[in-house]
Amino acid sequence: MALGFPPVSASLPAAPLPVPVPVPMRAARARGTPWSADGWVLVRSSGGSADPARAVPARAVLGGSQAGLVVRHALSRSAVVQSAVYARVSRSFGAARESGAAAGVQISLAAPVPMTVHAELRVTDREQGTDVSPALFVSGGVHDRALGAGVTLRAFGQAGYAGGEHATAFVDGQTVVEREVVATGKANLRLGAGVWGGAQRGAERFEAGPQVALDLPAGRGRVRVEASYRLRLAGEAQPSGGPVLSLAAGF
Question: Domain tally for the chain?
């Protein structure tokens, strides 16, 4: 998953916030409304701080603690091609603090593995200043793909290019295999294991580990809580491996 970018110096800002992979708009279409939204919070140990005593530069941060919200409005609802405009806000926490906003358009194509093309304009506020950049990327994935024996696959990924002062290509994704162990009504508890990774200029990481997930209904949407323990297999981006807790909701 490495892209071969040169190491980023300590004077450059941490790697940009990852873009959450959008979920399909099927639920919004089923409700008869063009609006849909997703929110997320991810918490993990901080990292990327420098060691003043040893003059060790801070490492780039990728995939650290963050929160965000994306709202979409569907423009077309064809069974084959769907389009929408969207707006997103996000905030990172920990050693590298950034806030960002973006607005763009997306086109989704129905396929065995659904794919979505995004074109957007981002505004990112960092300690070093504010950066305005265009971005073009493709995302896709599968939800609860049956593998047999009650085991399902969840896989998401994206790849693209962001321009601006700190222009970079980027790629990130995850693959989780899990099995339902407890089901009560519309809620269920799942156990599994996954791999997570990402790379962009000066920041790379690849991790693997166990995961437990709880899926819950929330009105007309869903809420998913995940707890995982990730072991670093490759890359030097901060934070280091360890426990990760995430909460995601789709409406």
Answer: 1
pTM above 0.85, yes or no: no
The boundaries of the domain holding residue 131 are 41-49+60-250
Token look-up 């265009």 returns 134
What is the domain-level CATH number for residue 214?
Answer: 2.40.128
Q: Are 104 and 120 in contact (CB under 8 A)?
A: yes
What's the CA gap between 113 and 81, in Å, rounded? 13
Domain for residue 129, yes or no? yes
Closest Cα partner for 81 from 56, 57, 106, 58? 106
Kindly give the confidence (pLDDT) of every residue in the chain, 251 residues in length, as a single tens digit, with 9 standing for 90 and above: 333 323 222 222 333 444 444 444 444 445 578 999 999 999 998 754 444 444 334 567 888 889 999 999 999 878 789 999 999 999 988 766 789 999 999 999 887 778 999 999 999 888 878 889 999 999 988 888 999 999 999 999 999 999 988 899 999 999 999 999 999 888 999 999 999 999 999 889 999 999 999 999 888 888 999 999 999 999 988 888 899 999 999 88
Within a domain: 99: yes
For residues 39 and 53, what is the distance between their CA atoms, to the nearest angstrom? 40
180: Cα separation from own chain's centroid: 23
